[in-house]
């Protein structure tokens, strides 16, 4: 069965693969891109590649039976729980991302669990839309993650991010006592560039690289540690982690830029005694970084209306703060 799809005016300029993802919610983008490459999906009379921008006169021809399209049923067959939704309206979805799940498929594990696939599967059970993530956070970072529910909202939100009109706040638990007075915001500015010696990592550089800025303030103090709030003015890879480390206050747990890859209670509690024969479990086994809140201009409002939501602290982060209050109160 051959299907023909004229391109609506409002979809002109979109990449072909993105148009198809909206046309077939729940179908893997990888499958659709492969179908374009093997000629099963084409733009009539035109050379066709997945990223080709659509024009007003284009007609998409699909030489496949839609019933045969493979639809995702969860990563590797594992059923994911419904996401914790922090905000939802007709255009925008914000979820509370748990730590330990990558936002997009990882190069070394393309079929492994990831938020984009998980959300697509879940949304297919809720209605006829495909969530489109408009930003990312690190795999081991928890908290607020935003998706658009339609193509126009995606375009508006991406433009808002590019214009620095989306405000994000992270909470970071760092080594050391950050030197900022009550109510003071400290701006950290270091240019960042990929580290040529360590794949996947960034480093601060004095020249070249990309200009970056992060505002930092104190949320709560402990002896030897600080909970700081961070507002990234720019959105570079690992920006908060590198900026804090460069200033001498790395995340309490950060295997790339910090001093440890997990936190044990015995490291912070004087006179700690382990149970005989027991192996001590990590108090905090991942990055001490949480995307606390996000506010954004409402799509279609030209910035006249804004919305905001906040992500509660996950159990591991909350538990660590409780222990610090007990065993490392401020001076």
Describe this structure in words.
By secondary structure, the chain is α+β, with helices and mostly antiparallel strands. It folds into two domains: 66 residues, RNA-binding S4 domain (Structural Genomics Hypothetical 15.5 Kd Protein In mrcA-pckA Intergenic Region, Chain A); 257 residues, Pseudouridine synthase, CATH 3.30.2350. It has seven helices and 15 strands. The strands form three sheets. Strands 4, 5, 6, 7, 8, 9, 12, 13, 14 and 15 form a ten-stranded mixed sheet that branches. A three-stranded antiparallel sheet has the order 1-3-2. The chain has a two-stranded antiparallel sheet with strand order 10-11. Strand 6 and strand 7 form a beta hairpin. The longest helix has 13 residues. It is elongated, with a radius of gyration of 23 Å.
Properties at a glance:
single chain; 331 residues; alpha+beta; Structural Genomics Hypothetical 15.5 Kd Protein In mrcA-pckA Intergenic Region, Chain A; Pseudouridine synthase; 2 domains; 10-stranded mixed sheet; 3-stranded antiparallel sheet; 7 helices
First-last Cα distance: 74 Å
The CATH fourth-level homologous superfamily of the largest domain: Pseudouridine synthase
CATH topology of the largest domain: Pseudouridine synthase
For the secondary structure, the number of strands is: 15
Choose one word for the global shape: elongated
Number of domains: 2
**Helix/strand/pairing category:** alpha+beta
Largest sheet, described in full?
10 strands, mixed
Succession of helices and strands: EHHEEEEHEEHEEEEEEHHEEH
**What average pLDDT do the residues reach?**
89
CATH arch. level architecture of the largest domain: 2-Layer Sandwich
Oligomer: single chain
DSSP strand content: 15-25%
């Amino acid at each position: 069965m051959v299907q023909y799809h004229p391109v609506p005016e409002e979809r002109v300029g979109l990449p072909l693969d993105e148009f198809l993802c909206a046309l077939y919610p729940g179908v893997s983008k990888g499958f659709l891109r492969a179908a374009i490459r093997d000629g099963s999906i084409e733009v009539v009379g035109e050379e066709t590649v997945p990223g080709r921008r659509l024009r007003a006169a284009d007609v998409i021809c699909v030489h496949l039976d839609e019933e045969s399209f493979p639809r995702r049923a969860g990563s590797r067959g594992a059923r994911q729980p419904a996401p914790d939704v922090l905000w939802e309206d007709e255009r925008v979805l914000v979820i509370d991302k748990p730590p330990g799940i990558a936002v997009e498929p990882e190069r070394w594990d393309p079929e492994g669990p990831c938020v984009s696939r998980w959300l697509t599967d879940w949304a297919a059970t809720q209605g006829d839309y495909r969530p489109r993530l408009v930003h990312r956070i690190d795999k081991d970072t928890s908290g607020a993650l935003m998706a658009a529910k339609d193509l126009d909202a995606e375009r508006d939100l991406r433009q808002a991010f590019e214009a620095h009109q989306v405000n994000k706040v992270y909470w970071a638990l760092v080594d050391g006592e950050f030197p900022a007075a009550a109510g003071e915001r400290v701006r950290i500015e270091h240019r960042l560039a990929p580290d040529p010696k360590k794949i996947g990592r960034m480093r601060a550089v004095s020249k070249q690289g990309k200009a970056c800025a992060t505002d930092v303030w104190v949320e709560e103090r402990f002896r030897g540690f600080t909970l700081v709030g961070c507002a990234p003015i720019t959105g570079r890879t690992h920006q908060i982690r590198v900026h804090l480390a460069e200033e001498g206050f790395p995340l309490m747990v950060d295997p790339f830029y910090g001093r440890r890859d997990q936190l044990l209670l015995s490291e912070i509690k004087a006179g700690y005694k382990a149970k005989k024969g027991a192996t001590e479990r990590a108090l905090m086994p991942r990055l001490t970084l949480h995307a606390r809140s996000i506010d954004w201009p409402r799509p279609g409002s030209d910035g006249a209306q804004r919305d905001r939501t906040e992500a509660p602290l996950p159990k591991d982060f909350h538990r660590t703060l409780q222990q610090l209050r007990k065993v490392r109160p401020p001076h």
